[in-house]
Amino acid sequence: MGIWDVGPFDNDDAADFADALDDASAQDRIEMIGAVLEPPMPRFPAYVRDLAINALDGLIAKPTWLAEAWNASPDGSKWRRTIVDLRAILDPPQQETLFVL
């Protein structure tokens, strides 16, 4: 799959789907979108979240081909920001102080 940016629609599969939507009638578009929508995903067990956090940490902890490719790209900082944002969603910082020391 070709990927050219960090957004959810910046890859070959999404571009192909968008092209198909552009070529479809208004009614067909509704059906096409409905066909790919799924019910909300069930709540994942905590260990799945931990796996995702570890995977993101692995991307930035040591040099990987993916990190090196993005670092060589003009959009490297955008890619790194996306990793940081994803990690913050998965493991948000504590918002309130539990007690004052």
Please tell me about this protein's structure.
The protein is mainly α. It folds into two domains: 1-38, no CATH class; 42-93, no CATH class. The chain is built from five helices and no strands. The longest helix has 16 residues, at 46-61. It is extended and about 65 Å long. The N and C termini lie far apart (52 Å). The model has no long low-confidence stretch (mean pLDDT 85).
Shape: extended
- What is the averaged pLDDT score? 85
Fraction of residues in H or I helices: 55-70%
The total count of strands amounts to: 0
Class by helix and strand content? mainly alpha
Number of spatially distinct domains: 2
- Rg, rounded, reads 19 Å
Measured between the Cα atoms of the first and last residue, the distance is 52 Å
Low-pLDDT segments: none
Beta-strand content bin: under 5%
Biggest β-sheet strands, sense, barrel: none
Compute the number of helices.
5
Helix-strand string: HHHHH
Summarize the structure.
The protein is mostly helical and 101 residues long. The chain contains five helices and no strands.
Task: Give the SSE layout.
Layout: H1 12-23, H2 26-36, H3 46-61, H4 65-71, H5 76-90
Organism: Actinoplanes cyaneus
Protein name: DUF4259 domain-containing protein
InterPro entries: DUF4259
